[in-house]
Amino acid sequence: MTGYAEVPRLGIGGPVGSGKTALIEHVVPYLQRQGKQIAVITNDILTQEDAQRLRNRGFLSPDRIVGVETGACPHTVIREDPTMNLEAVRQLEEQFPALDLIILESGGDNLASTYSPELADAFVFVIDVAGGDDIPRKRGLGVTRSDLLVINKVDLAPYVGANLEAMTQDAHHARGPRPVLLTNCKTGLGIQDVGAWIERELLFV
Amino acid sequence: MDDTAFIAALQLTDSFFPSGAVSLSHGLETFLSDQSAETDLSQLLHNYLERKIAPCDLVAYAHAYHASAGGDAERLHQIDRYLHVSLLPQELRQGSGRSGRGTLETLRRSVEEPLFQTFVAGVDAGRSGGHLPVCLALLHSIWRIPERRGGCMLLYTFMVNFLGAAIRLGRLGHRQAQGLLIHFRPLVGPLVEQALDKPLEEIGSFAPLADIRAMQHAHLSVRLFSS
Q: If interface means Cβ-Cβ distance under 8 Å, which residues of chain B face chain A?
């Protein structure tokens, strides 16, 4: 449980289908290109679905991707009782002492989900324009308290009747000085900004 | 039990206490995934308590409680290893160890008693698995929760975790669950009494269907729980 250096941990949360796994699929290769060693823990509602998806992408060796079952409580295992995630962190730290960052992906959850500060050093909340451009105005804890808010699928805004400009303004209004970044994880738009934020805030580059 | 010990007992039995148990179904998910078989939850819980938890976890608990009261960390590790090899299905064995180590980790910086710190250091060093019944026995002893009450707490905690999993799997209503907890109250005391007197060498459960279901869990194509 002790005796090794603690690796910085980044939580990634957000509603189902907002693009959490897609963001990881782009951000991890970006960080690898900067010479960083990464491992990922996924919290999925089904059998290691996201873990398997990431393994199939091939940019991380399978043993650097760990799936943790949530017992049908995705918010509980990142907030009230992160025991199983902390155990997975411990195992990764023991197995890969040279890791620079561990990413913990939450199962899809509601707008009020947050990470225990004892589990993640910082957390990103991912929403998307297709989920409704009123999400920032609802001021859920994920939107207001996350260290970085990512608005994904910006290319879809005209097709789903979302006002991206108003959505972004509402997000800034709800979050004050906390950052908001726009991405399109299909094309890679904005990924460099997210990666640079991670480097700056967690890896002190 | 004085007020301080009573509050300590409440803290350890509360589902608010982070032990990782929320991700365990103890094989129940496999039972309920079989659409071809009707599962009597009340009977199943009865079998688990009588044939698995009481003759196995509770026996280890009782011996660990005595070892803790005697300040014997070496004996605690021995009992912990004994329990480890008595839990046959891998996922149940792993879940018990993860919950126990999670409990130790939660309290690592809050409990300063030398015996606790010595045992934690031993588990860190891999001397034994840190299984939940052993860790709870140690804490109950340190916090002066009587052994018999602690045994009842162990069974109660299992019932709450088991029924909580059944609720989240959609097979039980919250009122039905409370009714079952009342129904099982009279069973708990006698089971604890029997287990407290058993020699460690007699530890072991006989619930083959439950064990097979727990082993099959690893092969489910869709699952929410880690056991």
A: 16, 18-25, 98-99, 101-102, 104-106, 108, 120, 123-124, 165, 168-169, 220-226
